[in-house]
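Please, is this right?
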Amino acid sequence: MRFKESEQIELKKSTSMAKEAIVSIAAILNKRKSGELYFGIKDDGKVVGQMVTGKTIRDLAGMIARNIEPQIYPEIEHIIFERKSCIKVIFSGEDTPYFAYGRAYMRVGDEDRRLSAKELENLIVKKNEHISRWDCALCKQAKFKDISATKVKEFLKYAGLQYGGLGSSLTSLGIMKNRILTNAALLLFGKSPGRFFPNARLRCAVFATETTAMILDMHDYEDDIFALIKKAEEYILGHINIGMRLEGLRRIDMPEIDREAFREAIINAFCHREYREYDSVNIAIFKDRIEIRSPGGLLDGLTISRIRKEMISKRRNELIADMFHRVHFVERWGRGISLILSKEPNTQFKEVAGIFMTVFPRKKKEKWSEKWSEKWSENQLSERQVKILELIRLNPKISRKELAAALNINQSAVQRHLKILKGCSILERIGPAKGGHWKVREKIADSGS
């Protein structure tokens, strides 16, 4: 039998090298969680043997017990190789990180490398990753009555699974343990998730310019994350330009930003966000761009450059991601970024102060003053009336008060301009004063100002 050192096998000439051997045990445990150590065999694999007595075994067991933390209980035995006495130590342990003489090491190939403080921190985080995940944590104050059976049934139907009762279904999905609901269960299927997680919400806003100085519209939503994803998608579609193309006799709506791309960004925001942060997923619609902001930066050393070039992702909420995968919201291969870039190549990804941002530049649309210049000149529309139309296009539900604030004029002046625009059939009011909205008509009738 030929011996060779590896990530799980260490060879020592004799127990005079016991201190170095103990370092190797800790390093192997931190890398592989189990391994074998032989005394009486040189590092080149040559069996040289050594004297082995009961005291030799006891002294070695004592050194291991005293100098490795947490304590391990190896199997130590006297064996014969090539008619020579040797010692075999078989060891294992799951309680990483292990320390030898107060220091942590990691096995790299057949060498033991001391871990830096940051590497040690990452090892501890990785060990506790599953236990510490927010979505896997138990929400002990929640009851069965807080879960919507209707939502669970709809999910299972879409996922192609059978409903076998609420408790059984939640358990089989892995979102209930020992009849206690996980955070993921409430976030996905809760009747009112906001009761338990006030930060599980969506905040949307439209801004008049490229900055946040002037808000045209703002809405906050609270619901399960499937509903919030739908709300976010609807909000964006309601506040961007929608063009059209014809396929035969069918009209196909063409949003200025690809719908599949921004939907993927929305799903990623809810799937990967840090729910421990008291913040929301935010949709910010500016004149020149749309930003989808999610609390929580990239994990495990990932960079913007790497996620753009490689199909790689690190999921912060593995349980939520698995549920999304079941209904085809996400793929296990981390193709979200590449999908977004294939649809919208100019998309930017940023990480600012622990916030991950997906930024979609808006298409430079033809200015209304250019597109309708001839018709506007015939109708003698003023610059202020043009501005009113642009603001209404951004936010069809904008109020007279908001228009007045945006234009820095009084509401009576706004009312006069609205009357002119309605008179020449450019503007139409749909519904009542409260709860209705404005509609800009493309056909302009002849009328003076």
Q: What stands out?
A: Residues 201-361 form a domain with the Heat Shock Protein 90 fold (CATH 3.30.565.60).
